[in-house]
Amino acid sequence: MFDTLYEDDYLLAVRKPVGMLVEGSHGDEQSLEDLAQAKFGPKTRACHRLDRETTGIVLFGKTARSHKELSHLFATRHIRKEYWTIVEGLWPKECSRIETQIAPLGGGKWANVETEGKPAVSTFRILKQNKDSSLLQVLPKTGRTHQIRLHCHYVGRPILGDTKYGNRDDSGHLALHARSLRFQHPETKQEIEIMSQAPSHWRSWLESLGFDDSNSG
Question: Is 51 a catalytic residue?
């Protein structure tokens, strides 16, 4: 199931657990959208996606109109998206902004390329680090597929648990969490910020970094 983080007559924000698809269920598997529609009505639709192994906030429109307007905010970059991630090793302090081009490779993989890709921009801030790993705040300025994962790989600091782009086999979960969304409500015009606490399986990672995990849950 999922936790409801925010709800009004217009929109819904929930916390996606690890391992669940946002939409497009297969066979007997239920997606987050399936569960949201069962609880909040069949018109409830996701306005953006997270990877299956990424946790955190997913925003839904509760009507056709709200879905269209919220999706437009994402498409025109009028929603501030904040992620937390934990990467292998020390993140270079001088590396606060990454700009690449991203293109599909096929087989569900994407790549940073020199030409003929779509521009991708992310900014990074170190929250805590030691010799083994670094906790980062990431603000993606564009919304390319696997953008944060590829930008961490570009620096040579893959995300913990990322078997697709990491440098080693790792059976753990992907350490990527959609932490907050901030935007102007299309209906009320009020500024809204929705927060999602770090999932419980992050606790050991945060403790190893000496990071106060009192906000994780």
Answer: yes
